[in-house]
Each structure stands twice: as structure tokens, then as C-alpha cells.
Write a structure and sequence with these properties.
disordered C terminus, 63% helix, mainly alpha, 3 strands, 3-stranded antiparallel sheet
């Protein structure tokens, strides 16, 4: 082979394996190794699988309770509409249903009469690869050493088993992660383009709406996405973009409203019960007084610490349930904490302590692996191990991260000379706002029994800030040149 042909071959190899493709391949390799190579990893069912499975007439193939719930992942599911409706009613809605529907269709196309959880895992992984690739393409305007370091650190952090185990499950946290990445990609796309702005704005609102529909707790972030959309059209300054924004914003708001009111009564009751008895009363020195303040019987203090699903829970008492429905709402809980700021701070601190554990005690392995029930994988858990074991687990550390992060962004914003860089920094500044909103929501509307799992998005946003800060620090230590392109400090 001639020297000329070797040079040509090298050029073609560089074109084929450019930065974006190589990076996506690395992400695919890390994630696929965890999820699909023996021993297969995932996250065991805590009883929530049924909410989505019922829409597709799916039920566990395993008949033993211990194989179905908490201890092990169950890969195989049967199509049985009657059995599926024994465990849930088809009222719960989530954008995760998109991925389950695609996986179910793939299974049928392959001639399968049952459902293999790995089909769903594969759909999640492909969606992650597509979202990451789009994110990389849309952030090319912000190419810098800081961005490169952030991508490397982000790969280690966000492919950790604490985030990726959900891919081999029916939990809607997978949709939260995937549509957040997609929304971020569209945000960068819409801010950095001069063409087809309305199409990009539509993509931004569509992905943001899918993100909001992933879980009920995500809906509180709707104002944040509306705010950023408003910042975009304000910078553009054209009336047609404003009309498009107004239309998309109204549609997104209405979709969020419909999603909020679609929550089945049984889910609302369980959430509110856990918020009171497994939340407010958990560390309360005056449990009976707290119940009285909520309009409930003082004698119910004996149930402090119980969950809605315990057999002895008063939630299964029709008279208690009637009174509870009439008295306790999500607004009641917020008012309870608003007039007791000390209790709110204490509850927020407790929530952070649980959230920083990052991984719920739900098994990652199949029973056939021979591992004990509820065993957690350590194969790619470097970040979650450090985070839960080395970082301070309290509210004030989280606040310090947010302040440091906003201070760094403010400094960059004040020195920025172009609108693109400022838009990037303004998008990044919304991250701590979203993190705080999520922390308040899971604190007020959740008990501690499911708090680690429900803190998924909060942890994702905190890790986003940590990755950005560490990337900036490392870039500074490596003497990042001052003459980088506009947008050099992409959040």
C-alpha cells in the first residue's frame, strides 16, 4: 500500500470517526456493557411497573412474589389483559409509554409472543445515542476545552449505573433523562441557529413537553421552559417568532394541565398519605399537633412512619379515606410548611440526605445470577459511590454548589460580548432553579420511602452543576486560552 493511499485512508478514518461519532460510540459501549452483557443489569419492580404495563396488557411472567418485586429484575413479561388489570388501572400517563410502545412493536415484529425487558432497554439506549449525538451537533458553536472536559466528565457521571439501571425497567425516570437531554439539545439548537427558527422552537417545546409528561413531578418546571422560550424570542425581536412562541407555550401549558389532572385518584391518595405519615410525621416531635393542624384526628399519630401500601395502613379504611380526601390536598401540605419555615428547612435537609444516596435499594440483577436479593452492581458506579460516600449530604452543601455555580455563570455573563454566549449562560442559570424546584416538590409531596428514586431528576441537575464547575476548574488549571470562540464556557 502506497504512502498516498495510507494518507487517504487516514483522512477517511478521521471523517468516519469524527468527535461526535466517536463520543456517541463510547457512550453506547459503556451503557450496553452494563445493560446487555451478562450479568444483565436493571432495576427491580417496586410495584410501579404495573402503571405502564397495563396499557400494553403486560404482566410479570414470574409467579413468585420475591422474583417479581424489589429483590430482582424480571426480564420476561406475558401479554394478559385480565391479569394486567388486577394490578393497575389504565389511568396513569407518561411519555415513557412512547418507548414501551416502540419496544412492544419491535417484539411483535420479531415474532415474540411475550415481552423481553431488554427490548425496552435497547430502545432507551438508541434514544440516548440519538439525543447525545444531537446535543453534540447543536453545541458545536461552543467548542472549547471546557466543553470537551465537560463531555468526558459527563460521560462518567451520567452513564453511572445509578442513572442507567432505569433503562432496563418500566420506570419513567428513563424518559426524564432522555427527554431532558433532547430538550437541552433543542435549546442549544434554537439558540445557535439563524435559520428555521420556528421549526427549532417547535422541536424545543415538543421535547420539553415530553419531558414534562415523563413524571407528574416534572410539571412544576413548565414555567422555566416557558421563560427560556421567552428569552429566545425577545433576543430575536420578530413578531412572527413571538406569535409562534405564544402558540407553542399555550399548547405546552394545556398539555401540562391535562397531564396534571389525569393522575388517578389511587395515586393521589397514596402520594398524599406518604407525604403526611411517611414525611411530615417522620421526625416530628409533635405528631398529634401536626395532624390537628392538617385537620386530621390526633389519634392517627400511631401510624407515623407508615406507608400507604402497608397492610395495616388506615388508607384501606373507607371512613378514614373519605375524611382524608376531604381534608388533605397538595395545597394543604404546602401551606403547612410555609407557616413553619423551620420545619421546611429541616425537611429539605432530610430530603438531600436521602437524595445523595442516589441508588434505591432495589435489586440490579436477575435471580438467575445467583446474587442475593436487592444486590446492587458496582461495575460502573464510581461516581455514585463517591457522591454518596464522600460528598457532604446536607442542604447547605447543595446551596453552596448552586451559589458557586451561579457566581461562575454571572462572571462569564458580565464578560460576555455576544448574545449567543449570554443565551447559553442564561440557559445554564436555569439548572439550579430547576434543582431547587424539584427538591421542594419531592420534600413536600413525598414520603421518605420512595424519596431516593423520586430524587432522580434533582440528582441529575445537581450533577449537571458539578460537572460544569469541575470542567471549568480543570480547563483553568490547564491554562485555557483566552482567545477561544464565542460561547467558550458552555454550561
Amino acid at each position: 500500500m502506497s504512502a498516498m493511499s495510507l494518507t487517504e485512508l487516514a483522512k477517511r478514518a478521521r471523517a468516519l470517526f469524527n468527535f461526535e461519532r466517536t463520543f456517541v460510540c463510547a457512550v453506547l459501549l459503556i451503557v450496553s456493557w452494563q445493560l446487555f452483557f451478562p450479568p444483565v443489569l436493571g432495576l427491580a419492580d417496586n410495584g410501579d411497573y404495573a402503571r405502564l404495563m397495563v396499557h400494553f396488557d403486560l404482566t410479570h411472567a414470574a409467579t413468585d412474589w420475591g422474583e417479581r418485586y424489589f429483590g430482582f429484575i424480571d426480564r420476561h413479561y406475558l401479554v394478559n389483559a385480565v391479569e394486567a388489570r388486577k394490578y393497575s388501572i389504565p389511568g396513569f400517563i407518561s411519555s415513557e409509554m412512547i418507548f414501551v410502545g416502540v419496544a412492544s412493536g419491535v417484539g411483535r415484529a420479531l415474532g415474540s409472543t411475550s415481552f423481553d425487558l431488554l427490548y425496552l432497554g435497547a430502545v432507551h439506549v438508541l434514544a440516548l445515542a440519538a439525543s447525545v449525538f444531537l446535543l453534540l451537533l447543536c453545541t458545536r458553536a461552543f467548542v472549547s476545552r471546557t466543553r470537551t472536559i465537560a463531555l468526558i466528565l459527563g460521560t462518567v457521571v451520567f452513564t453511572d449505573i445509578a442513572y442507567i439501571a432505569y433503562f432496563n425497567s418500566f420506570y419513567s425516570e428513563s424518559a426524564t433523562l432522555l427527554f431532558f437531554v433532547m430538550t437541552a439539545a433543542c435549546a442549544y439548537g434554537v439558540m445557535s441557529t439563524d435559520r428555521q427558527r420556528i421549526a427549532w422552537l417547535l422541536a424545543y417545546f415538543a421535547s420539553a413537553s415530553a419531558f414534562l409528561l415523563a413524571k407528574y413531578q416534572n410539571i412544576v418546571l413548565l414555567p422555566v421552559f416557558l421563560l427560556f422560550g421567552g428569552l429566545l424570542v425577545k433576543r430575536w425581536g420578530e413578531i412572527r417568532h413571538f406569535y409562534a412562541y405564544l402558540f407553542f407555550a399555550v399548547v405546552a401549558s394545556y398539555v401540562g394541565y391535562l397531564h396534571f389532572i389525569s393522575s388517578p385518584d389511587a395515586i393521589d391518595e397514596a402520594v398524599l398519605y406518604n407525604s403526611v405519615f411517611n414525611g411530615i410525621l417522620m421526625d416530628s416531635p409533635t405528631a398529634s399537633d401536626d395532624l390537628a393542624a392538617l385537620g386530621l384526628d390526633r389519634g392517627l399519630a400511631r401510624y407515623a412512619g407508615s406507608t400507604a401500601f402497608q397492610p395495616d395502613s388506615p388508607r384501606f379504611n373507607p371512613e378514614f379515606l373519605r375524611r382524608f380526601r376531604e381534608t388533605v390536598t397538595i395545597g394543604t401540605l404546602f401551606r403547612f410548611y410555609l407557616v413553619r419555615p423551620g420545619r421546611l428547612l429541616s425537611a429539605l435537609d432530610r430530603a438531600v440526605k436521602f437524595a445523595f444516596q442516589t441508588r434505591p435499594t432495589l435489586g440490579n440483577y436477575e435471580k438467575a445470577s445467583g446474587r442475593p436479593p436487592r444486590s446492587l452492581s458496582r461495575s460502573w458506579a464510581m461516581w455514585s459511590t463517591v457522591r454518596s460516600g464522600a460528598l457532604p449530604r446536607n442542604l447547605w452543601f447543595t446551596v453552596a454548589i448552586a451559589i458557586l455555580y451561579l457566581g461562575w455563570l454571572s462572571r462569564r455573563w458580565l464578560h460576555a460580548k455576544d448574545g449567543l454566549t449570554r443565551l447559553n449562560l442564561e440557559w445554564s442559570a436555569l439548572i439550579p432553579v430547576m434543582a431547587l424546584a424539584q427538591l421542594v416538590v419531592i420534600t413536600v409531596s413525598d414520603g421518605i420511602s420512595d424519596l431516593i428514586k423520586h430524587a432522580y431528576l434533582f440528582n441529575l441537575l445537581v450533577d449537571y452543576m458539578l460537572v460544569a464547575l469541575f470542567a471549568s476548574l480543570l480547563a483553568w488549571l490547564f491554562n485555557t486560552p483566552k482567545n477561544q470562540p464565542a460561547g467558550e464556557e458552555a454550561g
